[in-house]
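Re-run with default settings, no changes from the original entry. Doing this only to confirm the output is reproducible before filing.
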Amino acid sequence: MAAKKNASSVKKSPGKKPKQAAKSAPAKAGKAAPAKATKLGKAAPAKAAKKNASSVKKSPGKKSAQAAKPAPVKAGKPAPAKAAPTGVGVGDQAPSFELPDQDGNLLSSASLAGAPYVIYFYPKDDTPGCTKEACGFQEEQPAFQSAGVRVIGVSPDSPARHIKFRQKYGLEFTLLADVDKQLAEAYGVWVMKQNYGREYMGIQRSTFLVDAKGQIAQAWRNVRVNGHVDAVLGAI
């Protein structure tokens, strides 16, 4: 009887110990270690990504906003105002003058008083547009003369150039040499012009009809050559 009890106690005691050791050891060590590792692995990159993303978005945004403000502030808008012609208009007294003609003889506005005349301004002798305009006035000289209206051309060219221009195209009307552009300025036709982006001062092609009282009866500014002479004749 004593031998059987001892044998059963021996069998039970080693059986309980390995079962408890097998359950406790893997359960605690296996679950705790990976749980901590996963928390540390996820938290670290999430915070770093937010900080990096915010710093990248804010820093270039401020610099671009500051750089974009001074860009539109440019001094390019007042320029066109200078090019606007300021001179005589219809009803104004025609500017007085005394200028040399193609022969070097002085012609004054006072000597023209009491009779109407057409005075037209053009940029340069013997250029395509100016030549076409001059020949147009020449072709209609009989019509102007029958109406008692004198035609006078004005440009910054010298009297010597005017002589060559008249002889080359058979012009019979007077050409005045406004070398200093004083008469052009008085009429408001010496203006800022543009050509292929280049700005320069020059004559704005314009024509004025002055009546017998010396007043501006009609004004044509910045005219086109085609049909212009007919328009002037129609106003007489």
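The chain has two domains: 1-49, 88-235. The beta strands are 98-100, 106-108, 117-121, 150-155, 174-177, 190-195, 198-203, 206-210, 216-220.
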